[in-house]
């Protein structure tokens, strides 16, 4: 096993069904505290029945110029793009250009299992096609833009992980292939198809796709938090295609999701197909039960950007989150927003960090190994901050919470030191690992 610190009921239903009022002052206070402590940088939007009932934005679109995020700031939304691509495929089905059950050998005759894999299996991640973004050299391969032929060759070379239809396993390759299918069907670039079928009919003035969108107006930069916010390298958007190349605002994303579930883009039969899960996967959607209420969702991560939406059909309510940096556990953010939606009390976090200096931190410095896991972590200090650097990963800034105890809020990783014994205990979720300093 490879160990990594991944620094990645009736009453309630009736409550969410009538949730038209959000405790805005308290939710503002919550996000204000996060923003002031460098825990949040992005936009939050909640809409019900087509009306915005809560919105908050904080942080910088561009730290170098100090340009602030606004409600017009555009974010890369990563895999949330898959929901758009699924909609375009369902539109093509409605236009009788293809069938969900047809095999994909017509489009990709040289792909392994092409005669067995159906369009539906690409949509619900049951194709077995290996996820090309998991390759060890993927980061290096994405240093330059790629053509559709190069993407197809890369995916084909990866082969298959399992027989089509036997199980579900998330693969970005599926939605890159669906993007190429769309371009063959319509004999147009994906960008033009998106504009014709979704952007223009819905009047989404701040939504775009691919390289042109990446250079558009009001785009936010993506950041990673180390000892402070640092600019993230950007993936050429010719690579993720319809699996992750859409750029949009929180407001436009909210309009798209509401239009989708209100029958303004695809018909009821197509929407039902999207919402129906097989092995935990719908078609560009995931189904969750939150505080007893059904929600449909998708999330995305790319180049320092984080995005997701949740749609509650009972209330016709959508919650949208777009961020251009992360330094806090987003599951905690979601839970707080859900409590606000369900009209439940929630707490404002406190970030009264235990004060440390480089001199105090010297006692922890060194290289740590564990007999429980093949993981080497180097501990160092800089600017009165403790830094943890697992081999092969980024450097993580650990926050002191008490003597010898440090945490990384974004991932829930805890480090407890025993200097006299030269030991460090790492905890994350249910996992506890003992490390010894060399």
Automatic annotation (TrEMBL):
Q: Give the source's domain of life in one word.
A: Bacteria
One MF term in GO for this entry? hydrolase activity
* Keyword Hydrolase set for record: yes
Keywords assigned by UniProt, alphabetized: Hydrolase, Signal
Pinpoint the Beta-lactamase-related domain residues.
43-328
InterPro entries cross-referenced by the UniProt entry: AmpC-like, Beta-lactam-related, Beta-lactam/transpept-like
According to the record, the signal peptide region is 1-19
What Enzyme Commission number(s) apply to this enzyme?
Answer: 3.-.-.-
Please tell me whether the keyword Ligase is annotated for this protein.
no
Q: SUPFAM superfamilies, per this entry?
A: beta-lactamase/transpeptidase-like
Name this polypeptide is given: Serine hydrolase domain-containing protein
């Amino acid at each position: 096993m490879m160990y990594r610190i991944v620094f990645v009921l009736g009453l309630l239903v009736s409550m969410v069904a009538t949730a038209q009022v959000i405790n805005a002052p308290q939710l503002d206070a919550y996000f204000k505290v996060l923003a002031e402590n460098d825990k949040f940088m992005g936009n939050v939007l909640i809409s019900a029945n087509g009306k915005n009932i809560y919105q908050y934005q904080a942080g910088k679109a561009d730290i170098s110029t100090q340009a602030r995020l606004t409600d017009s700031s555009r974010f890369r939304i990563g895999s949330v793009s898959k929901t758009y691509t699924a909609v375009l495929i369902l539109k093509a089905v409605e236009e009788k250009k293809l069938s969900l059950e047809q095999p994909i050998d017509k489009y990709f005759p040289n792909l392994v299992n092409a005669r067995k894999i159906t369009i539906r299996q690409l949509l619900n991640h049951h194709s077995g096609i290996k996820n090309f973004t998991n390759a060890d050299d993927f980061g290096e391969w994405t240093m330059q833009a790629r053509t559709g032929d190069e993407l197809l060759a890369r995916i084909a070379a990866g082969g298959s992980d399992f027989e089509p239809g036997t199980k579900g396993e998330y693969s970005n390759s599926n939605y890159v292939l669906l993007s190429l299918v769309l371009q063959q069907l319509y004999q147009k670039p994906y960008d033009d198809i998106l504009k014709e079928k979704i952007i223009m009919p819905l009047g989404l003035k701040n939504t775009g796709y691919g390289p042109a969108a990446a250079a558009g107006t009001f785009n936010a930069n993506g950041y990673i938090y180390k000892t402070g916010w640092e600019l993230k390298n950007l993936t050429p958007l010719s690579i993720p295609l319809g699996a992750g190349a859409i750029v949009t605002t929180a407001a436009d994303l909210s309009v798209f999701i509401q239009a989708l579930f209100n029958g303004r883009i695809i018909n009821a039969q197509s929407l039902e197909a999207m919402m129906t899960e097989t092995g935990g996967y719908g078609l560009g959607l995931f189904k969750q039960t939150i505080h007893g209420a059904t929600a449909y969702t998708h999330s995305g991560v790319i180049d320092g950007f984080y995005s997701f939406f949740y749609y509650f059909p009972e209330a016709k309510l959508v919650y949208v989150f777009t961020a251009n940096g992360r330094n806090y556990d987003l599951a905690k953010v979601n839970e707080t927003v859900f409590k606000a939606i369900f009209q439940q009390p929630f707490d404002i976090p406190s970030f009264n960090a235990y004060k440390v200096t480089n001199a105090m931190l010297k006692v922890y410095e060194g290289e740590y190994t564990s007999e429980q896991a093949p993981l080497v972590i180097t501990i160092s200090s800089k600017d009165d901050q403790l830094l943890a650097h697992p081999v092969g990963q980024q450097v993580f800034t650990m926050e002191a919470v008490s003597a010898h105890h440090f945490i990384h809020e974004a991932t829930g990783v805890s480090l407890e030191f025993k200097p006299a014994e030269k030991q460090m205990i790492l905890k994350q979720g249910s996992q506890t690992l003992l490390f010894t300093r060399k």
